[in-house]
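Section 3.1: Structural characterization of target chains.
Under the original work plan, the team committed to producing a structural model for every single-chain target entering the pipeline before any wet-lab resources were allocated. The record below documents one such target. The sequence was received from the expression subgroup and is listed exactly as submitted; it comprises 304 residues.
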Amino acid sequence: MTDLFEQWWAKLNIQFDTELAGLLDLKAGLREISLERDQAQLESGLADVLDLSGGLAAILAGNIEAPGFVPVETASAQPSQDSGPLFEAVPVEARLAVRTSPLAHALHLSHATVRSLTRAREQAQQEEARSQRDPRGYGPNHQFDTDRMMAANCTRALLVDCDVEALPAQAVLCAHDLLCVLEYVEAHGRAHYALALEGALARAQDLLRALSTEVVTLLGLSDSLHPDYETLLSLLDDFIGADLRRANLAEVNLDGLWWSETSTSWPPYVDIELLKLDSVQTAPGIYVITQRGMTNIPDNLACA
């Protein structure tokens, strides 16, 4: 009797599971459950595979992997704007002072924000176009958009790490406005995600423009020049051929500074061999100063 009951019960369970599977989309339910689980696993494992401190140092410095920036001496082609006259117009002391200021720090963060949002918008546009071609597509998944997350983190860092009192009021307003938009997109951005990112990108560009204008003013340049970010980065970081013998480097952050073993002149107290230990050689005789121990230096900066 017991065996017959167990067989009947097992058959009933199988029938129940079969009918339930016909009513429910089990794969869709499992997919929703696994998304949250996979995100938690991904976030918990990031610290084990990434050099977070080194990565943040590279992002916040904004110097080493900035796109389009090639030191003047090693450039194979002229940049979009001729920065030669700008180097002559701005004393090295002013360039050193600005590059160490909260304003330069905020400038690099805002540029990283623009880059991240540009990538996020382009990806969202591609995903939306793909979902329109294929109705079964899910469209962009805003919950796992790491570029948008990076933009939000850079904007928060700008408002928290930088001395906002040293920043132009218009830039601070732009940063707060941008952060509000990004937080709204994070919470409600499932519909029209690419369009929402378009609005966030416009605000990020306003922020970068306000900071760039202030940097131009502090460098003593004419407002009519309108140098782009790469030109400003070159002014702040490219000291190849510069005469620093009279410069006071005591309180200057040199991370990301490009220099030449033959044409950059240093104060007598600077030990060139020790400086090389804190630098990465990017070309024969050309170096960029990095934080000692940084492990995430891009391959294109490593010596061959």
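The longest strand covers residues 279-283.
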